Amino acid sequence: METNVFGEPLIPCSFDPLTGYYRNGCCETGDDDQGTHTICAIVTMEFLQFSLDRGNDLITPRPEYRFPGLKPGDKWCLCTSRWVEAYHAGVAPKIVLESTHEKTLQYVSLDELLPFAVRTSG
C-alpha cells in the first residue's frame, strides 16, 4: 500500500484531469518514475507560466501522452524537483498532503510543505 506524507494510505489526487505518473489518479511512484511525480498540487496560472518558462509546458494538451493540458485550479501530480524549484522562486502552488506520496519527504520537509497545505472536501 502506498502512503502519504503522514504515513497514512495515499488518497487519490485527481481523476479529472486523470493524473499520476501511472495515470491512475494517484501520486504513486516507482523506479521507472524518473521525475518523482509525488506532489498533489493545485496548479495556478503563475505556476503554469513558471513551468512553461523552464521548458515544461503543462498548458498545451498532448493527447498522445494522455495529457489534457492544465488550467488553474486543476489538481496534478507534480515532479518534486519542479515544486521545490517553484518554492524557492516564490511561486509554489498549494498542495493536498493526504494525496502527496511519502517519498516527497526525501526532497522537502513536512515543515516546508505544511504552509502550502489545503484540505480537500470529504
Can you walk through the features of this model?
The protein is of the alpha+beta class and 122 residues long. The protein has a single domain (1-116), classed as Protein of unknown function DUF2237 (Phenylalanyl-tRNA Synthetase, Chain B, domain 1). The protein has three helices and three strands, in the order E-H-E-H-E-H. The protein has helices spanning 45-53, 80-89, 110-113; strands spanning 37-42, 75-79, 94-95. It has a three-stranded antiparallel sheet with strand order 2-1-3. The mean pLDDT is 95.
What characteristics describe this protein?
122 residues; alpha+beta; Phenylalanyl-tRNA Synthetase, Chain B, domain 1; three-stranded antiparallel β-sheet; 3 strands; 11% strand
